[in-house]
Amino acid sequence: MKIDFRIPCGVCGYGPKRLCCDGTKVGVGFRNSNYEEITETNQALGINNTLHRRMDRCFLKNLNGIDKQEMINLRTTLDYIARKELNEIKENEIIPERDLLDRIELLKQALPSEVLGSFERFYQMSDNERVAYSNVLKMLATTASITSLVPPAYCYKIQLLLNSPNIENDRFNSIVNETRSFAPELRDLICESLISNNEILPDDIRLFLQYLINESMSLQVTEPEPPVPQLGTYNPEKFGRAYYFNESGLKLRSVRKFSIDNDSCVKRNIDHDDATLEFEKCQKLYSKVQTSARGTSTLFLWFCADHGHCYGFHMTGQKEEKIPHYHSIAI
Ligand SMILES: [Zn+2]
Fold first, then answer.
1. Domain that holds residue 308
2. pTM of the entire structure?
């Protein structure tokens, strides 16, 4: 623990282009370690309103008046249709054709009108376009936020492609290339749709993409506080963390508290989190010893993905790790 984490990657400096994070249980050797829990929220900052819950952010949202199980069925159907086209259905999962047709009818009733057009053309698409479309549907079938398919900050790029039918080739190609890094599934769909339809993006795909962009951009967010280095916060041994990617190594902001944190009903609130579906579950296997040991901590390490330099670490006793995402944003 005598490493100085304020020393940056020799090549990337304080701005690594690619950062990776991995965590491991450190039960035995660190059992008696005493550190400041990183996930503790800062009460002094006040309480932010919870703007939306998980099921408000996905494609097929839970809606008032519709049974939650029905929404789960619709998502499962969408996932099935997509994976069927991708040849990913296992034998024990096969839904009889008749049932499937009924389920597709129900799904069509629930799909936004902007999506229905392309969905109805699904089986008439060329093989490549259908595969590209299926990959997008597969993502939309999950309960992940729609922003994971197309981040709001990049929506304007795709908007450019949709708004400018006469955009010159070079410019078009460079945006499409860029799209590969932030929305690869959409990039493939745009390209395959163009190739399959005489280099003209069909209106139904255009409408579909516009819908996804609008959804992503309409999600309200609470901007994080501006970074303000906090004196006396660099002490890896004491605090069990050092990960701030800046020269001083000082903490830049505290974890915020949201009204949902005070909601004692959250765990029982069915509208907050559905039980995960089979295809959403993490497939990672943990050893029995690791998961059952009490008082264990998890050590997370941050690396420059290209040069292996360790930027820092933090320890937490929390099972679910919400911090990596939080700090990815902070960089
Ligand atoms: Zn590096």
1. 19-51+230-330
2. 0.76
User: Residues with beta carbon < 5 A to ion ligand 1?
Assistant: 9, 11-12, 304, 306-307
H or E stretch at 22? strand 19-25
Same domain flag for 119 and 138: yes
Q: How far away, in angstroms, is 21 Cα from ligand 1 center?
A: 14
Backbone angles phi, psi at 19, to 5 degrees: -125, 140
Structure tokens at 153: 């900050």
Cite the DSSP H helix spans in the chain.
54-57, 68-85, 97-110, 113-121, 127-140, 155-163, 169-182, 184-196, 203-218, 236-239, 288-292, 323-330
Give residue 303 CA to ligand 1 midpoint distance, Å: 8
- Residue 86's pLDDT is 97
Distance from the alpha carbon of residue 159 to the mean position of ligand 1, in angstroms: 33
The Cα 26–Cα 30 span in angstroms is: 6
Band of residue 269 on the pLDDT scale cut at 50, 70, 90: low
Q: In this structure, are 244 and 291 located in the same domain?
A: yes
For tokens 């901590």, name the residue. Answer: 297
* pLDDT (tens digit per residue) in 116-142: 999 999 999 999 999 999 999 999 999
